[in-house]
């Protein structure tokens, strides 16, 4: 039977992880990957990934926390069926990778499962702790977004009937009206708004202690990225923005956003905090920002950690790159 299934080449992007989007609609191919003895599976319990200790899958000895990859027979012994796993893609050794999503109550029904999946952590704290390799964090982010989307799209938005997973979990189809649904990323803009040698930091009510960040907000339907930067900055700070440049982007799987990092040039300088989203806004120069990045600011103001695009934009500005 094997020879009837065509062999497809991997297409890799810079993440060194091939999503195989060009072949995952081939049901026979996906099912062959699931049954492959080389297939590996990661497990989420109540949206938290199961982790192992030791060097990461990427071989980065400095990372102390890594994804635990299970074999199909290990999972079968724990009462899990591999056909329920979602396809993530192929790793650099062309091993197919899959993700399972389980509920805590189901895991806790069996002592074997409970102890096999005991070591877990919240993705946000993993990202902030910095103890996991960027490759593993990125894999967890992709898997979590896919798993979350499948869990929250169980019914058809058009006729209300049940949907079924297709393409390894990258599409869902309504069994009744055949409508197709695809996973999506919600775009958000995050911007360094500059006035010559200064930029804006703001403090939202939910931020703890002396934590501040740059301005961010969702792109609304029918709106361009540039206009979202201008509108959000105006709504939150009262500052008018002229020229907008795209800098970089970052997937932000909480649960499925893509952060679009921009620089916006301010046309005005007086703050007006009228939408109550920000408690405080201030202009910060390079010297002050350098102290914040080093956690040495006299007012103990802290900025987002290195994993975030906000940190990258602030660092680039401090280094004179923006
Ligand atoms: Zn339907």
Beta-strand segment tally: 15
> How many structurally independent domains?
2
Which small compounds were modeled alongside the protein?
zinc ion
Secondary-structure-derived class: alpha+beta
What is the subunit arrangement here?
Answer: single chain
Mean pLDDT: 88
**What helical percentage do the residues reach?**
25-40%
Sequence of secondary-structure elements: HEEEEHEEHHHHEEEEEEHEEEHH
How large, in whole angstroms, is the Cα Rg?
22 Å
Range of strand content:
25-35%
The coarse silhouette is globular
Largest sheet: 6 strands, mixed
Could you give the distance between the termini?
57 Å
DSSP helical segment count: 9
Spans of at least 5 consecutive residues with low confidence: 1-6, 55-61
Write the layout of secondary structure elements.
Blueprint: H1 27-35, E1 40-45, E2 48-49, E3 51-53, E4 65-67, H2 72-77, E5 86-90, E6 96-102, H3 104-108, H4 111-116, H5 123-129, H6 134-152, E7 163-166, E8 171-174, E9 180-181, E10 186-195, E11 198-204, E12 215-218, H7 225-237, E13 241-252, E14 257-266, E15 278-285, H8 286-293, H9 309-318
Parallel strand pairs: 1-6, 10-14
Antiparallel strand pairs: 1-2, 3-4, 5-6, 7-8, 8-9, 10-11, 10-12, 11-15, 13-14
The structure holds zinc ion.
Q: Could you explain how this protein is built, in words?
A:
Helix 8 (286-293) packs across helix 9 (309-318). The protein is α+β, with helices and mostly antiparallel strands. Strands 10, 11, 12, 13, 14 and 15 form a six-stranded mixed β-sheet that branches. Strands 2-1-6-5 form a four-stranded mixed β-sheet, sandwiched between helices. It contains nine helices and 15 strands. It has helices spanning 27-35, 72-77, 104-108, 111-116, 123-129, 134-152, 225-237, 286-293, 309-318; strands at 40-45, 48-49, 51-53, 65-67, 86-90, 96-102, 163-166, 171-174, 180-181, 186-195, 198-204, 215-218, 241-252, 257-266, 278-285. The chain starts with 26 loop residues before the first helix and ends with a helix. The chain folds into two domains: 2-152, no CATH class; 186-318, Nucleoside Triphosphate Pyrophosphohydrolase (Alpha-Beta Complex), CATH 3.90.79. The structure holds zinc ion. Residues 156, 158-159, 161, 174, 176-177, 179 line the site of zinc ion (ZN).
